[in-house]
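We treat protein structure as text, and this decision shapes the records that our systems exchange. The remainder of this section carries one protein's record, kept here as part of the documentation:
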Amino acid sequence: MTVDLAASEGPVLHGANGALYGLSDDGVPGDAVLAPLRITGISQKPEGGAQHPNGDALTVAESFFRNGGGHIQVLLQDDYARWPYEDLGIDDHLARVERIVREIAARPDRDRFVYVPFNEPDQIWYGLDAADPAEYAAGRDRFLRDWRTVYRRIRELHPGARIAGPNEAAYHARLLTDFLAFARREDVLPQVMTWHELDPSSLRDFQEHYDGYRAIEREAGVPPLTVGIDEYGNRRDLSVPGQLVQWVAMFERNKVYAQQAYWDTAGNLSGNVVRMNVPNGGWWFFRWYAGLSGDTVRVTPPEPHTVDTLQGLASLDAARRQAQVLLGGATGDAEVVVRNVPRAVFGRTVVATVAEACWSGYEGPHPAPRVLARSRVRVADDGSVTVPLHGARRMSAYRIVLTPAGRGTPAPADVPWSASYEAEEAAVTGGRVRTHGTVSDAGGYAASGTRTVEGLLSPAGRVDLTVTVPADGCYDLAVLYGNGSGGPATQQLSVDGGAPVTVTYPSTQNAAHGGRKELRVELAAGTHVLTLAAGDGEVTLDRLDLTARTGPPSTTYEATLAETAGAPSYDYSSSAGTGTGALVLGAGDAAVFDVYAPRDGYFTLVTHASAEVELALHGTTVTAAPGQPLRLYLAAGNNRVTATAGRAALRALEVSGDGCEDGVLVLGAGAAVLADGARVVDCAHAPGGLRLTGLGGDRGGTARFPVEVSRPGRHLLVVHYAHDDRRDNGHSYNTDVVSRTAHLSVGDGAPLRATFKNTWSGDDFWTLAVPVDLAAGANTVTITGAAGPAPDIARIEVGRVVG
């Protein structure tokens, strides 16, 4: 793969990070995973629309816009309940359109909404994909009349409104030729030209579609319109970094906006967010994409416009003196040759940093991507730098960063021994191997190696996996699995036929919607057989990752690659440490780090800086002296940590630990004072064995927890909750789960409204962390419903943010 830094393609658009029904509620997904991505566009249903039980455009608008979101496309036909939409005539549709537009046009932020009058009209209502010319012409003429009617009515009610269309399910040159000619003649041109790319062949054909559309546009005498591919990708692509990079590369290259498709549930950014606040591998890829700055530059892959091959995109920011390459989609070794490296920007030597974002499943947490290599590389006489990539994995994405090399040598990358094993390649007893997520089964869910082991239900069901490890010690064992059994399921894990231990797998959306279970095993050097035998419920097995554990987890976040505010400068005079230099913060400048925590608990944070910096986290601020550890309480998933200073050169933020619970106040369900129908019941799967139920609802049940803390200040209130609220909309096109809400209040203070995403079953407990201010001594935390019933609660935990 070659990257030409001298061939600019224009400023980075960041247009391909959108999602259809990416948000379901205000707070789902959480702000901490939404804000870093700076999403340019989403598509949602009209407020109160009947197509889905949540994802209403106005409901999610506040959270989307406060987290840096761009525009919201409103799918006007999603006001209908059936799929395909019931055809009640254009007058019925027009009446609905009028109601929706009036509501949006009355808002002060009305111009951040884009109206989509019709969705997939080539297949729904109009039959515009008909092969018969007469049938096509009849449908076309009716569609164009209806388009004109609806378009003009929207513009009457909302002057200057942005309208998107025609929004076909696939690219149709025939329709677009007729549509543009008509729309230009009748003065009803959309402001955003939209269609969908929903087939693996799009990875091959999109460039031809885009170029063909621009030719049609020129022929029709239409000035270039903004292009939005408002549905892209298949199930097998979503959440998979190595697949996503192929789609994003071609959209960014052409400077079009694009949104991932909605195949399953709303509120998880099309499969890139686990639970409400936890990143997976796909999320980290989009975080990298959001971090590109400057101009994109030409990338030439080994096989352009080819399905499932190595593809990439790259940027050059001369002001920051950084070049970045994002790539993936192939297995094996590759060389990335960066040409025309400007000497005035980088000098004669650069530091090349290579990191990997793996596929962790749709529902598998992924820590900050691991740095695989740091090295000083001499710029060749021809102005090129070659960066090797060894042992690439097809489902992973990789980031290469080039920065000027200063004095010293970067610290070598800490890469522990690891190995991956496919479950289907083990000895399988009483189960079966299933293939899915291939090009020919693009609607199937992604799977490592495209195969999983399922059907391990009988007492004899088991998988025996032979592994070989290099040394005695503790190993992290991560199991990619699926559990669609309707509640927590178990298997029995044994090593070399020894005494088994029970492994409990939380529910996933279904048996193929993979999650990631993390365990630890002690192994002696040599070969062993790991056995996972059937327990209660069916667990599908995909891949097992075994990694040597060399100590408490530790991650170093480079300051020069952090999100910034203000106008900090970049100092590359030293290549020590991370090798990427320092970010020089002055008054009004800030660096925002996205810090991953595997669980709620205390972690150690250390700043590597020339002077004190202030760290802001969860609404409180603490002074960090250079090199001195701070004990801070982090929420499971992503945490936004903002660093400011009067004047300091900040090199990195180091975060370590497993999530210590020392000093955390834990109050079980039995500790609450209950009223108005709230009650405590036994629950084998709840932490502590009890759960609170009956909160909120018709009787307004409440629970009051006595919370005593030794020091005042900002705390995290972590709620362990469960609920499986669903709404059957009469069609099974998507998994229509809904969220519940609760009011949380401290003493007589105003209640905070918290949203709790569906946990897949009533016996699976997740956590939601809510920042609250507590006084020293006795406090009362009250929990009740905000609108309808609140979720069931097993316990709460309270930890002061600055421990």
About this structure: The two ends are 48 Å apart (CA to CA). The longest strand covers residues 647-660.
